[in-house]
Specification:
The chain is an alpha+beta fold and 424 residues long. Strands 2-3-7-8-11-14-15-16-18 form a nine-stranded mixed beta sheet. Strands 1-9-10-17 form a four-stranded antiparallel beta sheet, with no helix packed on it. Strands 4-6-5 form a three-stranded antiparallel beta sheet. A hairpin with a 3-residue loop joins strand 7 and strand 8. Helix 1 runs antiparallel to helix 7. The two termini are 39 Å apart. 40% of the residues are buried. The N terminus is likely disordered.
């Protein structure tokens, strides 16, 4: 199995310094190391990715005022990112200032089968409730009980480049193991409600052992929605403190504006570009398509080419198979429908956008459009625009198309040689 030049970023986002009425500059802060050590006395990267805030500093303010604004924004952002990372982590324990263990996702996972109600913070409790809600909304294509599948594929990503037998397509042992893991996770809403019991009055959850687990412990993983939920909380905190000229960027795949974008009239909007993985190597990035936004927005891209979590091969029938970190919970396998799926909305929360981008990666184009229509029927005053990047052949002979639900007010533009097809 050949390891390719994997891209660490899915998006290209260029900040424009001013518009015709407002002059100023952008300043950014990236949180790369958590402030709270794990129970192993190590420091990890919050949410396992780069979490970044970009703050606009008005030129009319004095230098000391700009410095104070930036420091306040940085402090709010960093404190909230670190605090929420501790709550949503499934790998490590953490202690508070009194030396007491903080209840987090790992606490709940470790309580499996003990019938012990675990008292949760408001944010952790709500995050888990959202996870169950999104299962129903996406007809099961987003499932928080797939942690065992995530760990299965993470082990393969580490070893498959040396021995392709680690991939279940080439090895029966791995294939059978995957079947067992899939059979052990809850696969309908009734099973999920048996698996994780919520007590709204006391804010407790009980992670029960169920007969359908077949003696295999399922693992709760909130990685698909934790960054989005953290972004929503941080966004609200910044607005409550009067900061409405920021961008929140999570891992190079999700962007959310705090307030309306700031851009030049000549530019016509804040530009966002989605990378074409077939034409990009390391940090030499070429875009597949771009668009511009003029209103407060959330934008998220899920792709099958993220760093150290993807590879591809050709099967015996000549089909190119992509392996990546987004897993279909019903099959246990990553799907190979698209190189990426992007979502633009002015209506929905970041946590919902992240859950939906995962679900859309797991659905073919027809079923994805059905899910979109379902959501717009449930929320008739909302908007939800999709951009699918499809690729035929390998990267050296790639033929790409973009399937989109809108031209984004006439701003959606594809790179040379890429066709845009509009879906109803």
């Amino acid at each position: 199995m050949e390891k390719k030049n994997i891209l660490p970023l899915l998006l290209v986002f260029t900040l424009i310094s001013c518009n015709s009425d407002i002059k100023g500059e952008w300043k950014n802060h990236v949180v790369t190391v958590a402030s709270t050590p794990t129970h192993l006395n190590t420091y990890v990267t919050p949410f396992n990715t780069a979490m970044q805030v970009n703050c606009f500093l008005n030129a009319n303010n004095k230098e000391e005022e700009k410095e104070a604004i930036f420091n306040n924004v940085k402090s709010i952002y960093e404190n909230e990112v670190n605090r929420l990372h501790v709550l949503f982590d499934r790998h490590y324990y953490y202690k508070n200032e009194k030396g007491e263990l903080i209840t987090n996702v790992k606490t709940i996972n470790d309580s499996y089968g003990t019938n012990t109600p675990i008292k949760c913070s408001d944010e952790l409790y709500e995050l888990l409730k959202y996870g169950v809600e999104f299962y129903s909304l996406t007809d099961g294509m987003f499932n928080i009980f797939t942690g065992s599948l995530t760990e299965y594929w993470e082990e393969i990503f580490e070893k498959v480049y040396d021995d392709n037998a680690w991939d279940p397509y080439f090895g029966d042992e791995q294939k059978n193991k995957l079947v067992e893991l899939v059979d052990a996770i809850p696969s309908n809403i009734e099973e999920i409600e048996q698996q994780l019991v919520f007590d709204d009055e006391n804010k407790t959850v009980t992670f029960k052992e169920c007969e359908f687990n077949n003696g295999i412990k399922p693992i709760i993983s909130v990685g698909g929605i934790a960054k989005g939920y953290a972004t929503d909380i941080v966004k609200n905190s910044l607005k409550e403190n009067g900061y409405n000229e920021c961008y929140l960027i999570s891992g190079g795949s999700s962007i959310s504006s705090v307030g309306k974008p700031i851009y030049t009239k000549e530019a016509g909007g804040q530009k966002i570009s989605v990378i074409n993985p077939a034409k990009s190597i390391f940090f030499n990035k070429e875009s597949a398509f771009s668009l511009k936004v003029t209103e407060e927005f959330s934008f998220s891209t899920s792709g099958n080419y993220t760093e150290n979590k993807s590879y591809d091969f050709v099967d015996n029938d000549g089909n190119r198979i992509y392996r990546h970190h987004i897993i279909n919970p019903f099959t246990g396998y990553p799907e190979s429908y698209y190189r990426s799926v992007s979502i633009l909305t002015h209506s929905f929360s970041n946590i919902m956008v992240d859950a939906l981008s995962t679900a859309f990666m797991n659905l073919n184009l027809e079923d994805g459009m059905k899910l979109r229509n379902k959501i717009l029927e449930l929320y008739p005053d909302s908007n939800l625009e999709l951009m699918y990047l499809l690729q035929e052949n390998d990267d050296n002979n790639a033929i790409c198309t973009v399937h989109a639900t809108s031209d984004i007010n006439g701003t959606l533009q594809a790179a040379e040689g890429i066709e845009i097809i509009y879906e109803n």
